[in-house]
Amino acid sequence: xxxxxxxxxxxxxxxxxxxxxxxxxxxxxxxxxxxxxxxxxxxxxxxxxxxxxxxxxxxxxxxxxxxxxxxxxxxxxxxxxxxxxxxxxxxxxxxxxxxxxxxxxxxxxxxxxxxxxxxxxxxxxxxxxxxxxxxxxxxxxxxxxxxxxxxxxxxxxxxxxxxxxxxxxxxxxxxxxxxxxxxxxxxxxxxxxxxxxxxxxxxxxxxxxxxxxxxxxxxxxxxxxxxxxxxxxxxxxxxxxxxxxxxxxxxxxxxxxxxxxxxxxxxxxxxxxxxxxxxxxxxxxxxxxxxxxxxxxxxxxxxxxxxxxxxxxxxxxxxxxxxxxxxxxxxxxxxxxxxxxxxxxxxxxxxxxxxxxxxxxxxxxxxxxxxxxxxxxxxxxxxxxxxxxxxxxxxx
Length: 396
Ligand SMILES: [Zn+2]
Fold this sequence. Notes:
Layout: H1 4-7, H2 14-60, H3 62-66, H4 68-101, H5 109-141, H6 145-168, E1 175-177, H7 181-191, E2 201-204, E3 215-218, E4 225-229, H8 230-233, H9 238-253, H10 256-279, H11 300-337, H12 340-354, H13 362-368, H14 374-382
Parallel strand pairs: 2-4
Antiparallel strand pairs: 1-2, 3-4
Helix pairs in contact: 2-4, 2-11, 4-5, 5-6, 6-10, 7-9, 9-11, 9-12, 10-11, 11-13, 12-14
Bound molecules: zinc ion.
């Protein structure tokens, strides 16, 4: 093994850098096109499609005419199908063609199709339940629906957070408890005193889909665990993996998941309240004011459109908070491991393996990135902070 101090100096060759930049530009174009398609489709669904579709469903089915809950679900599923049909070429290009062009994907075309239908099937199933719950609250709790809906959404977030690593993620990847005694010993030492047990470290077989490496802290309460991708475990040295693991411990120590859930509650109260004011403003309906108890099914795309616009407006703020959390964890990882050379080589390797542009445009970072650019993370490693007051450190 070569000296980590030497490796740290070379993040990417000129050729690798040019490729990462090109990949970054294509990915950015796909992200922006995807946002534009989403917004245009939702505006079209709300303004043009909603009322005729609702009327058509009532005219053609006595069952749907007499059962608004069922009609709402059918309406939601139909509009989602149309949305999928409109966006599938871009989904295939960004999820398959582009990833293969840059030698990042390990999926076959049929593998991509299977994942696409699995993902969308799950989204339609969960989305139907959430939409039905939302309308049921509007119909029954009237003018206070925005508060009850935010409370319900909070509970749904907690349930989803709990089941995500044990029920949802395994639908897409093989996940196994990490079986590497030497690594486990290192991790147990790093996790000591932080409340995160070593029993909670898992290997995520990301190589079924991509060559990119990743790590994450997922789950809540008893399902809380650190997931390290096989693409990371197979290519990184034990020292580098320890740094990445320490970063994930940071998320646990600083209670980032909990903080984001609480922030999500504040955001959903605000978002639902804005929806309420908009629905009751008379702007979308010429035939008199809308009533909560009889709120028509066709208002569903309007609610989706307003919530999407609200979330898009908040995106830079949310990404700013996320980048702040990531920096906190990077600093923690450096302090905890005391191995800046391993930190630098881990992030350099990550940039090369994932073809991350180390220095994207600041506007792109501000708007769309939830992690700091690699160049900034490396700079932090080169100027190791001297702060021993962080929780979980020996002696603190
Ligand atoms: Zn992180």
